[in-house]
Amino acid sequence: MGFVLGLAQCGYPGDGNVVAQVGRFAKEASQRGVNLLVFPEDLMSPRRLEPSELWRIAQPLDGGFVGAIAACAVQHGLWVAFTTYEADPEGGAPFNTAVVLDDGGCVRTTYRKCHLYDAHGVRESDRNKAGSSLCEPIDTPFGRLGLAICYDLRFPEVARHAALKGCEVLLYPSAWHDGPCKAEHWETLLRARAIKNELFVVGVGKAGDRFVGRSLVADPLGRTVVAASDASEQLLTCELDLAQIARARDAMPLLRHRRDDLYGALVDAG
After folding, report:
1. pTM for this one?
2. Could you confirm whether 113 is annotated as catalytic?
3. Domains of the chain: total
4. What are the residues whose beta carbons fall under 8 Å from the beta carbon of 92, sequence distance 6 or more?
């Protein structure tokens, strides 16, 4: 089974109209036969916001921002994955939340970022509340889909959990900051997660001068299916053949060869 994936590598629009930007990418993606369109992390904000600013723009998942993107999904007949700053129902700091909408505009799953980026002088935990559970992959018309966000990529347990839950396509919407070795880490980790778990891994990077960009799709053998060479705004598309997963796992049955008797059940298979 194959489907067409779209990677919307974009930054914050100059006019501040994020919904219009989503609409432009969705229109082009639809014209190019895309079934699932993925946007990067930090879609709502122009820069690293102060905590008070972030609280001000955060919305519930049934609010106007998600609703407007749902309308784009319906208009262009696409499934759409993106991130939003979700208001905490208990009144705490907002969550950094990934959302998957179907082509009818319905929320099919959400995931609150668990690993917050407190490194290199950045303290995401000052602005966001961490999620408390990993994503449970969902069935879609184009395979079993999983979610993680940016810094989660550095934690191999996240991808292994998804693989053990049957994930076939694992999405990492990201705003991966540039810096020494950051581009190399980004590309290497995406391919490593694919190789170690024998699934498709999709990294969609935010565009702009401060970011790596370099959106990339790795297949179950870790080969690059499609990739951006820089952090410029662009729409990448590719067709994924999910039959490659079974072929990879038949040839190299890594998940069946795990030795929990030696190193323990580090990830609960459920």
Report:
1. 0.96
2. yes
3. 1
4. 129
